[in-house]
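User: Hey, my collaborator sent me this sequence without any context and asked if I could get a structure. I don't really work with proteins. Can you help?
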Amino acid sequence: MAKSTFVYVTYIRTTPEKLWHALTTPDLIKQYRFGMTIESDWKVGSTWRMYSDGSLMDSGEILESAPQKRLVTRWLNEWKPEFKAEGYSRCVYEIEPMGAAVKLTVNHSIEGSDSKFIAAVSVGWAMVVSNLKSFLETGEVALVGSRSEMRSRQHP
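Assistant: No problem. I've predicted the 3D structure and written it out in structure-token form, which is a compact way to encode the shape of the chain:
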């Protein structure tokens, strides 16, 4: 079966430990992810849930968790019925040391071609990872606002 896939690669001047901490610490996630809150203990088999203003947006399960190396999640969009109808996707974060920097690869995929969900998250991932990079390198995010403000900027 065909897959819809989005891959984003960036290089961040940080350490694998600091990047992993930023990817798995709710207080930090909230800062670079437009106020979103995430609940999880990041252990294999555990659930995770992401909220915006108290509303469940996404949920899933931790499939792999290798601190400072790799995190794999099963992902279900909860807020948009047509995205939820596409079913579970898979999101893989790979962390690779590169001298004074770290290579971060985010690979988000779903079974089936022409996924509207993957098309939508490709825009969101670019903003989230840009904010994560800025946050880790400077202590500040590049894009400021709520998730709804970010969505309205995508579609004038």
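In plain terms: The two ends are 35 Å apart (CA to CA). You can pass these tokens on to your collaborator as they are.
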